[in-house]
Structure prediction request, 432 residues.
Amino acid sequence: MFIVGLALATASVVYTKRLWGCWFNPMALFVAMWSSLFAVYSFDLLPYYELQTRTYTVLFASGLCFCAGCGAASLCFVQDRSRKMTGRLRMQVNLPRLRRLTFVLYFVGVVLLVGFLLMIQTRFSLLQLISEPWQLRAALPEGEFGWYLRFFYFTMPAAILAFLHLHLSSSYRWVMHLIVWSSLAFGVATTGRTAVIWLLMWLACVYVLLAEREGKELRALSVVTLATVSAFLFFNVFGNWVGRTYENSPFTTTKNVNEAFSFVVVPYYYFTSNLPAFQNLIMEPPEWGWGSHTFLPLLKVIGSAVDVTAPAEVSEFTSTPYLANTYTYLAPYYEDFGLFGVFAFPALLGFLIGYLFFEMRFKGMNLTLLFTNSLLATVIIFSVAVNRLISSPTWWFLALAPIAGRWCAPRSNSGCEWRPDFTLGPAKRSAE
Prediction:
């Protein structure tokens, strides 16, 4: 299965490159992620319950639906596919407004972070956050921190805009670097891996979309490799910090792993346990939530006004035989609409995500499309584990994209300067 998985991933990249002129696209990314999942799963480092034929069939058919949706979206741009879209980019951005928006988002995020740390100091201590983060993490889901814990709602988009500014202008470089790196560091305060890895992947996707558009494919590939290795290293280092290591896990009593390779067991579990967990899910009749899981962020907003109880965003644990509570991105669709949702929603997502990508690819890149498509690329990356589209931060980021694009659009009568085109690389950057 390992060889088959790598072959499928490679074939998807080569095929879509020939078809659409780019290797980093929703279909190729989706197939590469899911093929890699099955390839890694085949190493059998942990004795999961054996996957049944029905599970493979459902997952394969669902994947085909997503790819079919992407293919259908590309048909809307048949007349534009012959255009050569590499070379110098045409992207108009009002740089002063981009800076102001970046600073505002970052400032709000920092204020919320300070409030969060003050609450930590009141209930626990900042020293305990550093030395015993697992105790703090157990208290976070209680909801006592409110909006203070949502500082990353603002620091993450601020980092993305600062990263874009670094490629548009040579001014304010140290400030923008500070915003990007500090936003990554702030994610550690959540005592979870997700915020940091999510932002790291998002930054990588932004860079790859820019680099590939200019034909710098080798540089884009190197960034993908670097981001993957960085995420793996952070996952392990952070796991050691919060006490989640192979040595204090239940894996040591059920599977004998060579000590030299024990550091890969916990990442292997988090990456692959979603498959047997999903199998457990579809073995039971669906809850028929009729959209309560799929549109959870919207239900949370409505529920606060009309006293409707929304389902929990974090799923209950299931036995794989190890406890796991991530069921791939298909879980909310099955819980709401059964197998129909497992097939219909991937097709719809494939079409919508594909359409936005091809709009950027063949019509022209702007801030809104770059922000949105890079974010949706992270949704695809995380699809092997969870559904980021039922997460409130994702809805907030998607709503922020057109606002940022509109705010930073150039105004001919404003007297502000902007860069009408740009290329990647220090030697080709210039001041405003």
